[in-house]
Each structure stands twice: as structure tokens, then as C-alpha cells.
Amino acid sequence: xxxxxxxxxxxxxxxxxxxxxxxxxxxxxxxxxxxxxxxxxxxxxxxxxxxxxxxxxxxxxxxxxxxxxxxxxxxxxxxxxxxxxxxxxxxxxxxxxxxxxxxxxxxxxxxxxxxxxxxxxxxxxxxxxxxxxxxxxxxxxxxxxxxxxxxxxxxxxxxxxxxxxxxxxxxxxxxxxxxxxxxxxxxxxxxxxxxxxxxxxxxxxxxxxxxxxxxxxxxxxxxxxxxxxxxxxxxxxxxxxxxxxxxxxxxxxxxxxxxxxxxxxxxxxxxxxxxxxxxxxxxxxxxxxxxxxxxxxxxxxxxxxxxxxxxxxxxxxxxxxxxxxxxxxxxxxxxxxxxxxxxxxxxxxxxxxxxxxxxxxxxxxxxxxxxxxxxxxxxxxxxxxxx
Length: 387
Description:
alpha/beta, Rossmann fold, 6-stranded parallel β-sheet, 12 strands, 43% helix
């Protein structure tokens, strides 16, 4: 397990006003995507807005993914993103007039250039401390391409937050200091259910239908599982550009009657899907801290995942999950069969994972955000590690 290079609490030493006892009245402008469609970053934005408001903060949520009209803008390459960026900048400039903190949810690629970076510069122009909350799963490649330009913008932020020590190490390689604050899981909504309550051997894949999530490997793995356990079923909860190709692959594998593509699910529907699953499979080729894995852990669904990116930072192979190599569909199949056949192993992993996931509950994460908001208000420049 990697160690944080710059623990947040250490960074607060000697900073006047570096903590806040309450968030009541704190004026926060939160920028980020919101459902629909549901997804990891959008769900985190919505959850954080609600949790901060429940603490008494005055949260002004500025969605970064509003509907774009007229419809023809969707057909012109780049027009939708540029239109959103202009509209966001106008709304944000007004909102920052009375803000204490800007909290911007950031991603890689054009999302960074059109949404997050302009937000940071607008906050700097208004004299409002900006916190960059970075969730980009493609951070390593993005920083390799655009690192110098990104560092210039990051230097205007009071702090850069990442959800895992894995991403912290990625940023450190590009000389960008970060603070680790974990994603939040709603443990009341994603409540633990006993594994014995699920009798059908159903596998759940809760990833979007995009190349990076390698749902094709999940289908091939499940074909092997189904050969051994004909009663097994697979639910794929996601949407994306590979939908048609993946449905065609399913049919070519003879799985049309046992694999259900149910589309992207909202939070309540995802709870229902997890409650009916015996195994959660994460086949991705790149990842950081997937909320879908955390939600499966919280619900008590044993996890099989590729050992890519930040996954080994949040689960331990053979203790809280079973890990396999990316693209190894036979390895995925063997791991799923172990869990579907061995109730003792499945229950042991589920118990250990449910204990580990407690660190992502709001009461623990809340203190970190309170410290950071206090630090941002107490400094004029970026947060630094002590010498």
C-alpha cells in the first residue's frame, strides 16, 4: 500500500485559520457533471453537493454537462463542448462574486481544457480559492501529453485533490503535489446484505460500454463460466459507443438468453442490481478508484477485478477481492467460478471488503474536507507540504 507523500493534516501545521469547526454558512461553488446520465464522477458530484449542504454549507452547484440547444450543435465536432464551456464560464463568473471556495470536479482531455482549467482561472481572477478535485482515469497519458500546460493552471489552485494514492503518485511524477481524499460511498443506501440472501449465480458488470472498460473480455469470460454453470446469468449495467458491437459479440457467443444489457442505472436501480448479484466483475484496462467497486464492497458482493491502475490500492488480492491480469478472460472466468462455487471464500472476501469500505463513509471523509476548506481560506496561494 502506497504512503501519502503529503498528508493533509501535516500540511496544515502552522497555518492560521487552517481548520473549520463547522461548514455552516460556507459559500461553496461546486462545478461538475451531474446525472443524468449516472456515472462515477457525476454521482460523486451529486453526493458531495448533498452532503455539504446537509452540513450547513451554502452550495451553489454549477453543472458542467447541461443540455445543449439547439440540437444541431451535437452534430458539429467540438461545438457542444465549446458551447458548454462558454456558458459555464458566464455562469461561473457571476457565481464566484459571493463565493468563499470554488470546488471543481476535473477530468482528463478536453473536459480539463474546456471546463476545469477555465474555472480555475476565473476563480483566480475573482480572488476565490480554487480546489481541483481530479478524477481522470487517463491521468498518466494526459499528463505525459500536456503536463507543462496543466502545471501552470494547477499552480493557480489552492489545492489539488485526488481520490487515491495511486493518482497521487501519477501526479508526483509530473511534479504536481496533491492531497488524497477518498471518494464517498453512501453506506446507508448501499447497505450490506448477507451473501446467503442471493441464490442465483448472477454476475454484475457496472461499467460503461467503452474500450477502456473491456466489456468484451467480460463477455468472453462469462462464456467460459456459462459452459461450467449453465444456470449463471450476467447483467451489464452501462451504456456507450460499443453497445452494438458488444451485443453482437454476446449473440455470437450464444449468450443472448443469459446476458442482459440493461443500460446505465441510476443509484436506486444500481442498489437493486447489486442486491441480486453474487459476483461483481470489473474488467477495465485502466482505472483509479472506481466507485462501482466500492459500492459492491459496501453491499457485500465479492469482487473480481483486473489489477490495473489504482485497483491494488483499494483492494488486496485474496483478502478483499480476487485480482487478475487485464485482458485475461480465462483468468476472470476462473476467479468468478471460484466465488460462485465456494461460499466460504466468497463470504470471507465480502466480510473483509465490507470492513475496509468503512473508510469511505462520509463521517471519515468529512473531516478531510473541513480541514482542506479551512486551509484554502487561510492561504492566498497553493497548499504545500511542510519543509
